[in-house]
Amino acid sequence: MSDKSVWLEQVDTALINFIRSKVKINGNPVKVVVRKPEDDFYSEEYPVISIYCLYDRFSRERYEPQDIVVGMSTDTLVLEKSAMPYDLSYQIDFWANYQSDMNSLLKQWKALGFWFNLPVRDVSGEERSCFVRSKGDFNKSDIFQAEKRLFHSFETYLIWTEIDEGEQEEVPKITYPIVTYS
C-alpha cells in the first residue's frame, strides 16, 4: 500500500520542471517560481514565470465511489478505496522587462497548445501524468512603476489530480450464492 496522491507540492514541482524544459531565453531555461498568496509578486530578475494555485475543486464527474478489487485469493478479496479526484486551478504568469522577451516566452509556451499531459511524480515517487488544459482566458496587465514598464501576461489552467492514499481492506469473497425459496 503506497500513497499515489498527486497534490499541490507535486504539481508545483512538475510545473517548474516542465516550464523550464519548454521555455528558454537565449538558450537558457527561464526562472520559474511559486507565487505566495500572502506576498505581492516581486522579482529581482526578469524574465520570470510564476505559478500559483488559485483553488481546488472536488471533481464529481471523475469520481468512482466503488472500491476497486486489487487482489484476490480463493476466499478473500483485497479492495482499495477509490481515489478522490480534484481539479486544481492554476494561474501561470509571465513577467518581462522587454516586449521582445515577453513575445519569446509566450510564443514558446503557446506552441504547446491548449492542453497537454504534465509529467509528475506522486507522493511515493512513481511517475504519473496529470491532464492540463487552458481555460482560454489569456490576459495582459502590464504594470508601470517609476517610469518603468513591466510586461505581464497570464492564463489559468485546470489540472486533474487525485488524492489516492492506497487504503486497502481484505474482505470475504462470495464464491457462490445461496438461494432459498420460502
How does the SSE layout of this entry go?
Elements: H1 8-22, E1 24-25, E2 28-29, E3 31-34, E4 48-58, E5 68-72, E6 76-80, E7 84-96, H2 99-110, E8 115-121, E9 127-134, E10 139-140, E11 143-145, E12 148-163, E13 168-172
Question: What does this entry look like structurally?
Answer:
This protein has 182 residues and is mainly β. The chain is built from two helices and 13 strands. It has helices at residues 8-22, 99-110; strands at residues 24-25, 28-29, 31-34, 48-58, 68-72, 76-80, 84-96, 115-121, 127-134, 139-140, 143-145, 148-163, 168-172. Strands 3, 4, 7, 8, 9, 10, 11 and 12 form an eight-stranded mixed β-sheet that branches. The protein has a three-stranded antiparallel β-sheet with strand order 5-6-13, with no helix packed on it. β1 (24-25) and β2 (28-29) form a beta hairpin. The chain is elongated. The two termini are 45 Å apart. The mean pLDDT is 90.
Short description:
The strands form 3 sheets. Strands 3, 4, 7, 8, 9, 10, 11 and 12 form an 8-stranded mixed sheet that branches. A 3-stranded antiparallel sheet has the order 5-6-13, with no helix packed on it. Strands 1-2 form a two-stranded antiparallel sheet.
